[in-house]
Description:
Elements: H1 6-13, E1 20-25, E2 28-33, E3 36-42, E4 45-49, H2 52-60, E5 65-69, E6 72-80, H3 85-89, H4 92-107
Antiparallel strand pairs: 1-2, 2-3, 3-4, 4-6, 5-6
Amino acid sequence: MPDLDLGTLLIDLLxxxxxxxxxxVSGRFSFMTGGKVFVFARPSQLSLKLPAxxxxxxxxxxxxxxxxxxxxxMKEWAVITRPTLVEYAHELPLILAAKHFVESEAAKPNPKPxxxxxxxxxxxxxxxxxxxQKGTPRL
Length: 139
């Protein structure tokens, strides 16, 4: 049997949970529900998306650290580091809470309209009676 890694452990733990997909990109396993990532695993870390107050509680209890990407600390992401894979398996309730959180967030109406990156177009000038009409050849 091949050595078990964190991503494979999560695949096994979540195998019977409906609505979860996963993919491996650059040595990291991402687990999604409804196309949204709720947990990702690096070889020695587990990152979970949870409500900010849950993240604060986990940090206060020394069970997790906030996820920092570059200089930005993500308010709804926590990083869990455990010494053994067995200890990650004990975090299944928290992993499922992350799934439910992401599902509940997706169910909420989006307060912001989707942004478009198109340049504003100038209004089309109205055709004057002297302007050639569509289909009229120019001379």
